[in-house]
Amino acid sequence: MEVDVADSAGASVPRATSGFAGLAAENRRLRAETARRRLVDLATGVLAAQLGLSTIEAYDHLTALADATGLSAEDLAADVVNGVAAPGDPRVTPPEPLPSGLARRLRRTAVAAEAAEDVGDGVHTLLEGGLAPLGADSLWLWRTVDGCLRLAGHAGVGAAEATAWQWIPPAAPGPFRGALAENTPVWMEGALGAAAQGEGRGPAVEADDPTPLPGARPGAGRAVLPLRRRGATVGVALVGWPGPVAFGTALRRAVGGLMDVAAAVLDRPDDEEPGAPVLVDVLDALAHPGALLRTDTVTGEPVLEHANEAAQTALGGIPPAEDRSLERVFPHTHGELARLVLRARHTRHPQHAPHLPPGRAAPPPGPLLDVRVLRAGAERAVVLWHAASDPGIATGRAVSRLQSVATFQDSLTGGDTVWSEQAYALFGMSRDEAALPLLALRGRIHREDGDALTDLLRTLTDRRSGAQAVLRIVLPEGSVRHVRVAAEPLLEEDTVTGFVGVYQDVSATRRTELALTATFDHLTAVRDQAELRHQLALQLQQAIVPEATALRELPGGLTVAARYRPAAEEYQVGGDWYDVLPLPSGKVLVTVGDIAGHGIDSVTGMVALRNAQRALAFTGRPPGQLMSWLNEVTLRTDGSTATSVCALYDPESGELVWSSAGHLPLLLVRDGRARLLDPPQDILLGAVPAYTYEERRTALRAGDTLLLYTDGLVERRHDGIGAGLARLVAAAGRLAAGGSPERLVDGLLGTEMGDTDDDTSVVAVRVRHPGEPTADDTRVAGVVVNSPDADGS
Questions:
Q1: How far apart are CA 474 and CA 789, in angstroms?
Q2: Where is the ANTAR domain (predicted)?
Q3: Cα angle at 702 between 723 and 545, to 5 degrees?
Q4: Is this model's pTM higher than 0.85 or not?
Q5: What's the CA gap between 615 and 629, in Å, rounded?
Q6: Which CATH superfamily, name and number, covers 545-778?
Q7: Beta carbons of 78 and 108 less than 8 angstroms apart
């Protein structure tokens, strides 16, 4: 087959519009275009050097010549490159030139092979585009590795044989040793009677090496050629023909030129893992349908890699290689088949299905019967099926369904009891022992099941109707088997003459029921415990951190509003806390924090840290020292970590001193504009011991509002924290008009800036202007009336 690069790279090649087929078509088009450009660029460089032209002038000259001669740019480029690639030694008679069509084709093939992505692609390009038109039907490339030859790529040969010749030791067959030792080709003409060695200028010599060669048929022509790269032998190539061949000068030149390119192809990565070709050969040897699937590297879904002849016939043909998804190859069964492949891959056990699609008829070419799916490595699976039911397989399935069922017939008029063969195994008895009648089972059952057997027999004999019961049969070795007995009475007129029925082993079902019951009881207990823990955590959290606190007036003209919003998801009680506490020194402690995790452990850790921070604040130490102490408390509590910000406000100086342990920055609203305060870059609590936290100092003025919050207020699942902080600044500036802390915190929670369903704490502290009404002032008919103090004075 001849590969016409010019045609495959033309603008008229249609491009697939969607899916994997589009990607594959685009990939082929780009590779063909790359090969075409490579050839044209080579010719352009040659013309530029020979004619002293610039690159652009040389390209224009090339296209003008192509138009004038009626040749394509690729064909003319091939002629130019071939012209300079010929031997130029004036002392040697120039060889007879190859026919122009052959020379152009070989040059295009060489350029396309050099542009191949891997060795396998390059080998197939060399065989199909160059060697096959010369009569060859196979190509092998080996790479030299530590004195041995390792197969790097092959085309036109069986995969099983390729696996057998993966490695050739130093004691290689004679033609290989000759090619490697003398760096000269070995030409073996086959049944024509000679094997010529060297360059073919002397008489042919007989090849007497009896060592077999890979891929060769008796009497077939072969050529073994060294592959040289940068002055060194890097491998060996073997070209095979289907029969005898006469190696003329032109044929040797053409093959040798292509093998110069094959040496460059060896620089590409190897094409495929060994083992997959063997599976292909095994499937091709089967008489019933079989297919090899692999996981697509782009979609992660199984796609068809190979189908044997029987499978292609059963499927009515297979689609092109670029679009072999399961949905395309198996349009009516792809869903069920994909699930079988997934289970086989995860369980590492073969999967079976008697009929795909299950429970319904499939349009032509019909359903897949007796389907088996086997894992074949990490990325592959083998699918085997039948187009018509196999009686042997169907019979085996029927027997397997009835292995736990046995029939019996008892006679009450002096006849014998008759068991089916399965009954003896069910009762743990040999075929030499006498079958037990239903009336004699009492000695073989568990003593607690005696009443159940009595009720069964009474129904059969007294009521003369069918009945069933589950009895525990005690086997001779002492184990117990649960057996369901279903029986019908045999009647002659009004007399019961015997029983007929079945025994069914239901031990597995009974064990499953018991296990499910125990599991259900355990899950119920776990659920009750989880609910109890949740309620305790919720009550503890609400007692320490209420969802809303009334507006509070604090010393120094501070007005405070705080809110806590619990997590949206059930059982996601979190570890957020806030605290606003006047201290004996006259200063005011303002803090928020967030302990990692959810649930009772998180809440109890939060309570411990909040109470510890409260107690430490009474020492009068600055926030940096308080935070260092709280870090040591966190390390010695329960191994959790937490973020926190701790601030002390001095009403006399109006100064706010604060420290941050990995927490989000404070937000200051002043004169209707909001901005974030740059926090210290200190680590979170509980990370490392003996850590010293920095302090920041911020002067607050009358009318300022300070906002402390946790990450649940601003975090989004698919957005960065920077974007969330920007939204917070914009919203705070908009809501701060009027100066009410309550309006600010309620408005921020109502904007739903965060969407992680995490719990959230928000504290707003405002410095009042002198003479500004306090939160305890109430308005009645537009008149401000001071409400009494909490103590009634």
A1: 84
A2: 20-81
A3: 60
A4: no
A5: 11
A6: PPM-type phosphatase domain (3.60.40.10)
A7: yes
